[in-house]
Amino acid sequence: MSGEQREHILESLFQTYLTTVDAYKSLLNQPYYEVGSTTLIQPTHPDSTIKLYDIRVREALRFLVRDPWFMTHTPKAVRSLLNGKIWNVAFVKIDERDWATRTRVVPRKQALHVNGRIIQPAKILVNYHRSASPEDPFYPETRGLPMGALPRDQLARVIALEIEHNITEKSMRGHVAQDQLTAPQ
What we know:
This protein is an alpha+beta fold and 185 residues long.
C-alpha cells in the first residue's frame, strides 16, 4: 500500500473515530510552545492551544503514515493507527505526572467486539510541557525540547516510537484507573 493510500485511510479515520484532542480539554487557557522553542506564548482565545495542538498532531500522523521511514522502522505503529487499535492521539497537560508520553488502553471488560475480534482501543497521550528522559526510546529525537515544541517530523517519530514500544505491553494491563486519578478537574 502506498503512502498516499495510507494517508487516505487515515483521513477516513479522522472522519469516523480517531480523535486528536483530549477529552478533558486540559489545554484550555494554556500557553503554547512555538515549534523548536522553549518559550511559552499566551493564546489569543481560550481554545487556541487546543486547536493548535490538534493541527500539529494531525500533521504528524499524516506524515507518520505517508513517509516510508515509518513502515520500515516502526511498522507496528503504522498498522496500529490504520487498523483500529488507536482511537485517540492527543497532547495533554498533566502536571501530576513526569512522563513525556503514555499509552493508555481500555480494560478488557470495556473492550469492543467487532466481527469476532476483541478491540481494546488505545490512546496515546503526549504531555506537552514535559521533555523526554534518557530512558525514553525517542529521547534522541527530542533534542531536549518539551513535547509541545517538537516540529512535525520529530513529533511523528516520538508518537511512532511510543506506539511501537508500548502498544502490546500496555494492552495487556491498561491504565484507566491512573488516567482517572490524573484527570484535570
